[in-house]
Amino acid sequence: MNREFQKRLCGIDEAGRGPLAGPLVMAGVILTLPIDGLMDSKKLTEKKREALFPLILENSDYHIVTFSAKQIDTMGISKCLQSGLLSIQEHLPGVAYLFDGNSSFGVVNIETMIKADTKVPEVSAASILAKVTRDREMVEMGRRYPQYGFEKHKGYATKAHYEALLKHNRCAIHRKTFRVRGLDEPALF
């Protein structure tokens, strides 16, 4: 992307594409002032992400889109991603858009870049907003459904999560269309 001709850039990233439970969260960010310390949210500590979160909110135009597990089951993950990209374009119009990854999910005027969250500050900021928003919701879901330990694994397919699923089956925030070894197919262990 030739940044000298693009005065304003909206970086876009998501969190929660692959977990067994919880939402998919997408964020679009247009930085209004530079912020030190931005990088891919997965490379930051939780403490650092939490410290950067309010700085990003104060120094950007942003839009956050959340899709519940039920919406993911109904629409499919690709349609959710497509819908999120369209929502970000609608709420943050008239700029260039750069989405982390290699697919624009059929949405026009979206450029993509693999590992953009490690290379482009706006995408790093979007990565942080999406991850912190999702992680906070999963901590809350951990309080609501303590038997699953969502506050620890955030809904991802860890050994502890599998064990909780086998013992308690799914709850309301599990993605029913995501297959689980031992529940939906024979256990391999």
Automatic annotation (TrEMBL):
Annotated catalysed reactions: Endonucleolytic cleavage to 5'-phosphomonoester
Q: Which domain of life, per UniProt?
A: Bacteria
| InterPro entries according to UniProt | RNase_HII (IPR022898), RNase_HII/HIII (IPR001352), RNase_HII/HIII_dom (IPR024567), RNaseH-like_sf (IPR012337), RNaseH_sf (IPR036397)
One GO term under biological process is: DNA replication, removal of RNA primer
Residues binding a divalent metal cation, per UniProt:
13-14, 100
Q: Which UniProt keywords apply?
A: Cytoplasm, Endonuclease, Hydrolase, Manganese, Metal-binding, Nuclease
Cofactor binding summary note: Manganese or magnesium. Binds 1 divalent metal ion per monomer in the absence of substrate. May bind a second metal ion after substrate binding.
Question: Domain RNase H type-2: where?
Answer: 7-189
CDD domains linked to this entry:
RNase_HII_bacteria_HII_like
Provide the family line. Answer: Belongs to the RNase HII family.
What does the UniProt record say this protein does?
Answer: Endonuclease that specifically degrades the RNA of RNA-DNA hybrids.
Q: What is this protein called?
A: Ribonuclease HII
Lineage of the organism: Bacteria, Pseudomonadati, Campylobacterota, Epsilonproteobacteria, Campylobacterales
Q: Tell me what gene encodes this.
A: rnhB
